[in-house]
Design a protein that fits this description.
The protein is of the alpha/beta class and 350 residues long. It contains 14 helices and five strands. Strands 2-1-3-4-5 form a five-stranded parallel beta sheet. Helix 10 runs parallel beside helix 12. The longest helix is centred in the C-terminal third of the chain and has 24 residues. The chain is globular.
């Protein structure tokens, strides 16, 4: 159990839940010609399929409710939140992975994700599962811009970049997969508050890099109540399998620091609009009152026993996998079901 937990303690599962609402902060008639995504498995649409890592989901039962029952590399039974947000904007119904050879710059011109399951702000986090580090996602973005300029022309490409909504979903892996999974490595260098500040510094530099590359509309995603992920509840035996409160407290503390960061960034960079997107309260409401949203189960997930399975532990032949994922808040022990993602995206568009 401990080994599985260390390997799969993943991801800020819902990326900045209210990222659609951020446009209302920009301007009521905001034009969004493209959505550009950075992050972890909550927003990876298949980039990890193309690299040698065990952090994959390109096999059944993942994708069983996707068009054609096709596993794509999304950690879901179907589409993920960014797909629904794209659709709400009147763009395409799915955002493709940059490394997916099935797509080209004509597809990426209106939306692309550079995200990699298992990644985080900290380079050491991406090393755990040998996935794409945040700095490498940024390098792919630079490469993408060159292709976009060749495709649209430099002026139109620059306009596309400045008007696009740039979204991030990072952080949970840094705490659950790195800091707490390898305490001797991380805790010896930082206490928890220092580590939070270290990550916030990386986030600040990353947004600065995006700004330098022309991005002007940026949604900085916060952490969900990560102590309520099914795996964390499963291993909380002495807490009667309830949410792990200390992880939730850390998520709230970190979110507060990210929110303050957006104020600083908006003052430091002319013409930028950075908005903090906080998923914490919305997700907690769903988790604590699942029936109000049409769910039957929030404490365990649909896949297999629903207690600790993610990735390869989510087996298509497991007799315990649920038949109707729409009854579950979580698809696997870290990631929401397609229905949860749809509710979040649609609620955010009000």
């Amino acid at each position: 159990m401990a080994k599985i937990r260390n390997i799969f303690s993943s991801t800020s599962w819902i990326l900045a839940i209210f990222q659609f609402l951020t446009l209302m902060v920009f301007e009521s008639d905001a034009k969004v010609p493209a959505i550009i995504v950075f992050g972890d498995s909550t927003v990876d649409a298949g980039n990890n399929n193309q690299i040698p890592t065990i952090a994959r989901s390109n096999f059944e039962p993942y994708g069983r409710d996707f068009t054609g029952g096709k596993p794509t590399g999304r950690f879901s039974n179907g589409r993920i939140t960014t797909d629904f947000i794209s659709e709400e904007f009147g763009l395409k119904p799915t955002i493709p992975a940059y490394l997916d050879p099935a797509y080209s710059i004509s597809d990426f011109a209106t939306g692309v994700t550079f995200a990699s399951a298992g990644s985080g702000y900290d380079n050491a986090t991406s090393d755990v599962l040998d996935v794409i580090a945040l700095w490498k996602e940024l390098e792919y973005y630079k490469e993408y811009q060159k292709k976009l300029k060749a495709y649209l022309g430099e002026q139109k490409a620059n306009e596309r970049i400045s008007e696009a909504l740039h979204m991030t979903s990072l952080g949970t892996n840094d705490f659950l997969e790195n800091y707490y999974a390898f305490p001797r490595r991380s805790s010896s260098r930082y206490n928890i508050e220092q580590y939070q500040d270290f990550l916030v510094g990386i986030a600040k530099n990353f947004i600065g890099e995006l700004y330098g590359l022309g991005a002007r509309k940026i949604s900085l995603g916060g952490l969900p109540p990560m102590g309520c992920l099914p795996l964390e509840r499963t291993v909380n035996i002495f807490g009667r399998n309830d949410c792990v409160e200390r992880y939730n407290v850390i998520a709230q503390q970190f979110n507060g620091k990210l929110e303050k960061l957006t104020v600083t960034l908006n003052k430091e960079h002319s013409g930028i609009r950075v908005v903090f997107s906080n998923p914490y309260d919305a997700l907690m409401n769903i988790i604590k009152q699942p029936s109000s949203f049409g769910f039957d189960v929030a404490s365990v997930a649909c896949c297999a026993t629903g207690m600790f399975e993610m990735g390869y532990a989510c087996n298509r032949n497991d007799m315990y996998t649920c038949t109707d994922a729409s009854k579950y808040v979580f698809w696997d022990s870290f990631h929401p079901s397609e229905k949860t993602s749809r509710i979040i995206a649609q609620a955010s568009s009000i």
